[in-house]
Amino acid sequence: MAKTRALLLSAGATPARAAWHLALLLAALTVTIVILASLPASAKDAPPPLAPVDSAVGDTILLEGKVVYVDFWASWCPPCRHSFPWMKDLGRSYAAKGLQIVTINLDKDRAAAEKFLGEINAGLPVIFDPDGSLAKRFHVEAMPTSFLYGRDGVLRERYQGFRAEDTTAVDSLIEVLLNEEVRK
């Protein structure tokens, strides 16, 4: 601020005018910070559209026009061990109606991930992301983190962590999305 005041004074502004300009600058900065802080988290760090997952799957037909549940997980994550049976049930219940579940593993050691998958008999599509590049694009900060997309590929909900008591609400939203018309 002292440099800005000195610059204003060297430009011929009076001390009172320089102080007024500094106050105006501080007010504008404060308003900007308040606006940014009041934005919902989804507006500040929204994950990318479904395209990165689509390209990682390698088969665009797999996800096109479907409700997609993307789940980031790791073998060392205790809640992930509980979320897989639920996701497997989701797949059985809603796959014929258009739900596609894609899981993304973040283990650096693929053997650990494979062991985990064998122990829980996952039966779900898995993308391995050992360098975390997809996780970074999706701003994943907790395990598991999941994203629910409508048939139009638009993100509808983001979930951090897994709690069995929240599954009924997620199931309900999936049913709503499965019954939606595709937005154009």
Please sum up the structure shown.
The radius of gyration is 23 Å and the shape is globular.
Summary keywords:
184 residues; alpha/beta; 5-stranded mixed beta sheet; 52% helix
Explain this structure to me?
- The chain has a five-stranded mixed beta sheet, with helices on both faces.
- It is built from nine helices and five strands, in the order αααααβαβαβαββα.
- It is an alpha/beta fold and 184 residues long.
- α1 crosses α2 (15-38).
- β2, α7 (110-120) and β3 (126-128) form a beta-alpha-beta unit.
- The N and C termini lie far apart (50 Å).
- The longest helix has 24 residues, at 15-38.
- Residues 4-9 and 21-44 have low confidence and may be disordered.
Lay out the secondary structure.
Layout (H helix, E strand, L loop, with lengths): L1 H9 L4 H24 L2 H5 L5 H7 L2 H4 L3 E7 L4 H17 L4 E7 L4 H11 L5 E3 L4 H5 L7 E5 L5 E6 L6 H13 L5
Helix pairs in contact: 1-2
**Range of strand content:** 15-25%
How many β strands by DSSP?
5
Distance between the termini: 50 Å
Structural category? alpha/beta
Strand order, sheet with most strands: 3-2-1-4-5
The percent of residues in helical segments reads: 40-55%
Question: Any low-confidence stretches, pLDDT <50, length ≥5?
Answer: 4-9, 21-44
Mean pLDDT: 77
